[in-house]
Automatic annotation (TrEMBL):
<keyword id="KW-0132">Cell division</keyword>
<dbReference type="InterPro" id="IPR049945">
    <property type="entry name" value="AAA_22"/>
</dbReference>
<dbReference type="GO" id="GO:0051301">
    <property type="term" value="P:cell division"/>
</dbReference>
<feature type="region of interest" description="Disordered">
    <location>
        <begin position="1"/>
        <end position="35"/>
    </location>
</feature>
<dbReference type="InterPro" id="IPR050311">
    <property type="entry name" value="ORC1/CDC6"/>
</dbReference>
<protein>
    <recommendedName>
        <fullName>Cell division control protein</fullName>
    </recommendedName>
</protein>
<feature type="domain" description="Cdc6 C-terminal">
    <location>
        <begin position="396"/>
        <end position="475"/>
    </location>
</feature>
<dbReference type="InterPro" id="IPR054425">
    <property type="entry name" value="Cdc6_ORC1-like_ATPase_lid"/>
</dbReference>
<dbReference type="InterPro" id="IPR036390">
    <property type="entry name" value="WH_DNA-bd_sf"/>
</dbReference>
<keyword id="KW-0131">Cell cycle</keyword>
<dbReference type="InterPro" id="IPR036388">
    <property type="entry name" value="WH-like_DNA-bd_sf"/>
</dbReference>
<dbReference type="GO" id="GO:0006270">
    <property type="term" value="P:DNA replication initiation"/>
</dbReference>
<feature type="compositionally biased region" description="Low complexity">
    <location>
        <begin position="13"/>
        <end position="27"/>
    </location>
</feature>
<keyword id="KW-0539">Nucleus</keyword>
<dbReference type="GO" id="GO:0016887">
    <property type="term" value="F:ATP hydrolysis activity"/>
</dbReference>
<dbReference type="InterPro" id="IPR015163">
    <property type="entry name" value="Cdc6_C"/>
</dbReference>
<keyword id="KW-0235">DNA replication</keyword>
Length: 493
């Protein structure tokens, strides 16, 4: 009878190869690769499975995946905070390509035909207006150089820095180097005289006036005269005004409308959840390691988009969440070490949860983000939910899971079944149906759910009165320490 060893040798023989669909022979990797897998691994990565001699499944992962982040490393922490700082311009600007193309196309047309014109850029704070104009200036100069056009002079002015609103005309006049001796009159009068006569030596000039609403005076003369410079017959001004007010041109420049000289308006709308998430990820892609849980970034993007769509707030909240992780590591290092020693000494406990907890210390979790958000956005509803007794919070979570999708209401008996399932799955003793009914009445009195009328309590209709996002935001921090309950409510569909 052949031995087991000889059977294994015959199995490894090249005469009976294992069929594979790959064009090149598979590369052997260490089984330790499985340890580096996380729930946030990129879904598009192709993983090939190979049956080894020991009948184990081994996964092969490209070496280009990011390494773990060490938040205890001061240099790494500094780099992460710098990437997320407001003053750090991203290498690529996403989600504003359409608006930039409109402005750049307008400027190209003015330079190409040597024709003056004006634009008004408006939108809520933190929607990328100023940063987009910086990109437009660079792209315009590159285009002019490549196309053989004379390079336009560029003047960027933040109107809040002007000690006097009329100083903007002095700055514009200073760019015209072809002026010989100093002219007579005010800077505005000199510019008006200059643009009234043909002068082939004058360059086109791009003026970007940020915070334009600071030029609004009582008689609105400065703002009006600034835009009127683009209407003179030999003007070389390309004026781009940037401000938050959408109707500034209609309210403060009515004479321009009457003269058919109203500036073209380009509106920057508030960022959506997907856009905020994409912009943050674009910044973090510059780092060689993973810093945030994907769910944490999603929570931040969803909350900021619902509140204001201000990208600056999103970046500040992300930095605040990093500081929450720093504080946790600094304050509880001794407790974590004691917990690890206790877990390793108990042989009957599974090792996977311990490993997950250790991994989560290496990145910003969803509870860190929720704490950072709570410092920025506080609401009475969130405070009320967080102050509820534990079982009433579970009832709200049960209703949230039950009412996901198109379902708008349920009966109390069905809601009790969902509540009891969550409690049992989390090893929490559920309340009886009578106590459950009384807790639902309390939630109804607080305006958190709506109870219908019925002789039988179990048949009373239950309708949600809270937004799912408020429940999620309020309870993620509280339930994160209860691993089974957190996973059941916030992770599973």
């Amino acid at each position: 009878m052949p031995s087991i060893a000889s059977s294994k040798r015959r199995f490894r023989s090249p005469a009976t190869p294992i069929p594979t669909t790959t064009t090149s022979p598979p590369t052997r990797k260490s089984p330790r690769r499985c340890i580096s897998a996380t729930p946030n691994s990129v879904s598009s990565v192709v993983v090939r499975q190979i049956i080894t001699d020991e009948n184990q499944i081994e996964s092969i992962q490209p070496a280009s995946l990011k390494s773990k982040w060490n938040p205890k490393d001061g240099e790494q922490m500094r780099i992460v905070k710098e990437v997320l700082h407001l003053s750090t311009a991203p290498s690529t600007m996403v989600c504003r390509e359409e608006e930039q193309n409109v402005v750049l196309g307008f400027c190209k047309g003015c330079v190409e035909h040597e024709k003056a014109g004006s634009l008004y850029i408006c939108g809520c704070p933190g929607t990328g207006k100023s940063l987009s104009m910086e990109k437009v200036k660079v792209n315009l100069l590159n285009w002019a150089a490549e196309g053989g056009f004379p390079l336009p002079d560029v003047l960027s002015v933040n109107c809040t820095s002007l000690s006097n609103t009329s100083d903007i005309f002095t700055k514009i006049l200073g760019l015209h180097k072809t002026l010989g001796k100093k002219g007579s009159g005010t800077p505005l009068q000199q510019l008006q005289n200059l643009y009234s006569h043909k002068s082939p030596t004058l360059n086109m000039i791009l003026i970007v006036a940020d915070e334009l609403d600071y030029l609004i005076t009582k008689d609105r003369a400065v703002l009006h005269d600034l835009f009127m410079l683009t209407t003179f017959p030999f003007s070389r001004c390309i004026l781009i005004g940037v401000a938050n007010a959408i109707d500034l041109a209609d309210r403060f420049l009515p004479r321009l409308t009457a003269l058919n000289c109203k500036p073209t308006v380009v509106t920057f709308r508030a960022y959506t959840k997907d856009q905020i998430l994409k912009i943050i990820q674009e910044r973090l892609n510059e780092l060689p390691y993973i810093v945030f849980q994907h769910q944490a970034l999603e929570l931040c993007a969803r909350k900021v988009a619902a509140a204001s769509g201000d990208m600056r707030n999103a970046l500040c909240i992300c930095r605040s969440a990093i500081e929450m992780l720093e504080a946790e590591i600094r304050d509880s290092a001794c407790n974590l070490n004691a917990l690890e020693e206790k877990s390793s000494s108990e042989q009957n406990l599974p090792t996977a949860p311990d490993y997950v907890k250790k991994q989560e210390l290496d990145m910003v979790r969803i509870d860190h983000m929720a704490l950072a958000l709570s410092k920025t956005y506080r609401s009475p509803v969130v405070d009320t939910i967080q102050s509820l007794p534990h079982h009433q919070q579970i009832i709200l979570c049960s209703s949230m899971k039950r009412f996901r999708g198109a379902k708008k209401d349920s009966i109390l008996g069905e809601l009790y079944k969902s509540y009891a399932e969550i409690c049992k799955s989390s090893l929490i003793p559920p309340a009886g149906i009578m106590e459950f009914s009384n807790m639902c009445r309390v939630l109804n009195d607080q305006g958190l759910i709506k109870l219908g009328q019925s002789r039988d309590d179990k048949l009373r209709r239950v309708t949600p009165k809270l937004d799912e996002g408020d429940i999620t935001f309020a309870l993620q921090v509280i339930f994160h320490s209860l691993e089974p309950l957190y996973h059941l409510i916030f992770i599973l569909p």
